[in-house]
């Protein structure tokens, strides 16, 4: 007896056809797309070819943060194409970079280096997505989680300790006027180093005692300062011949300062104050100090505005949309902090 082949053995069932159609619809494809001759895909560029293009397309701040990590990627993978590394290889590179981190007293196992390396890779691949070199589904950096960030060890500095810092800065070093101005600027405004270094004479509003701060993430804000600080900023501009559209903070010979001035300042303070060196106190501790005081005395909304945090960070909840503080609120907090009246305080 001859057995005939079952029709279902060579042809798809109606359910399978429907499933295929549904899948194609979700992918935005048609049967004709599958029949078309595929176009030749261009060869993906190497990291050595593409990273310089990304570096030229980002802001100075982004380049400063990721530059050293891009150099490490170039060292290890310069001749590899963007579409070659796998998530497992990225994890291996993270382990290698973390192992190469120079151990310091406040080191945390290279977590920061691993986090920044992944962020630097994600920046490269994000541009590659935008340029049509890869798809989001093929982005290997998105498949590697960043190391969990540990709680910060920074905290507010006590008033007595803050007085010690200011005293040593004012009585040591080759430019006490510059160092005390830096400290007061950061204590009053809680600005970051980048914000202070980006400050220009044209960013001063002496009438309303405001300065225009430009900080990371291209955020900007008008920040109240005391009349005393405004007077010193103007005097510094005059004495050090700072052009209106150029950097305000300068050495005595007129050269603009860099982050090295901060490094030298805190190294010197650590030599005179052992607890500064032991706890690795830095300028960012001053930001913690001021914002903690503002939050304790004027509430979370005012502290958030004082810090220049936006409501798009996603860490404050929907309520932050309705309880925003304004410049008058931050000016009121500043007046209490400095014990000086401010033109905009309530």
Automatic annotation (TrEMBL):
Domain (Tyr recombinase) ranges: 154-339
Nucleotidyltransferase among keywords: no
Keyword DNA-binding on entry: yes
Lineage: Bacteria, Bacillati, Actinomycetota, Actinomycetes, Pseudonocardiales
Pfam family, one: Phage_integrase
Keywords assigned: DNA recombination, DNA-binding
SUPFAM superfamilies: DNA breaking-rejoining enzymes
Stored PROSITE patterns: TYR_RECOMBINASE (PS51898)
InterPro entries given in the database record: DNA_brk_join_enz, Integrase-like_cat_sf, Integrase_catalytic, Integrase_recombinase_N, Tyrosine_recombinase_XerCD
GO biological process: DNA integration; DNA recombination
GO molecular function: DNA binding
Name used for this protein in its record: Site-specific recombinase XerD
């Amino acid at each position: 007896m001859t057995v005939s082949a079952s029709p279902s053995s060579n042809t798809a069932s109606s359910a399978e056809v429907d499933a295929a159609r549904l899948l194609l619809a979700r992918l935005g494809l048609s049967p004709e797309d599958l029949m078309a001759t595929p176009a030749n895909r261009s060869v993906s560029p190497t990291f050595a070819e593409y990273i310089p293009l990304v570096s030229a397309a980002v802001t100075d701040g982004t380049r400063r943060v990721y530059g050293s990590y891009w150099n490490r990627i170039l060292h290890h993978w310069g001749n590899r194409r963007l579409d070659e590394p796998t998530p497992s290889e990225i994890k291996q590179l993270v382990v290698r970079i973390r192992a190469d981190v120079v151990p310091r007293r406040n080191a945390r196992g290279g977590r920061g280096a691993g986090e920044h390396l992944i962020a630097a890779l994600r920046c490269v691949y994000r541009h590659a997505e935008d340029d049509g070199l890869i798809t989001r589904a093929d982005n290997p950096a998105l498949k590697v989680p960043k190391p969990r960030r540990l709680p910060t060890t920074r905290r507010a500095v006590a008033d007595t300790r803050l007085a010690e810092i200011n005293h040593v800065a004012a009585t040591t070093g080759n430019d006490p006027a510059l160092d005390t101005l830096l400290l007061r600027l950061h204590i009053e405004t809680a600005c970051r180093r980048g914000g202070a270094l980006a400050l220009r004479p044209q960013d001063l509003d002496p009438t309303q005692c405001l300065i225009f701060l430009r900080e990371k993430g291209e955020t900007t804000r008008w920040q109240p300062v005391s009349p005393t600080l405004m007077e010193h900023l103007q005097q510094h501009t005059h004495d050090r011949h700072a052009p209106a559209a150029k950097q305000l903070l300068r050495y005595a010979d007129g050269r603009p300062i860099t982050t090295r001035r901060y490094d030298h300042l805190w190294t010197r303070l650590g030599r005179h104050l052992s607890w500064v060196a032991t706890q690795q106190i830095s300028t960012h501790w001053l930001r913690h100090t001021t914002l903690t005081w503002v939050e304790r005395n004027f509430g979370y909304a005012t502290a958030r505005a004082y810090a220049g945090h936006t409501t798009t960070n996603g860490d404050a909840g929907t309520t932050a949309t309705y309880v925003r503080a304004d410049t008058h609120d931050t000016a009121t907090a500043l007046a209490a902090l400095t014990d000086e009246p401010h033109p905009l305080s309530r």
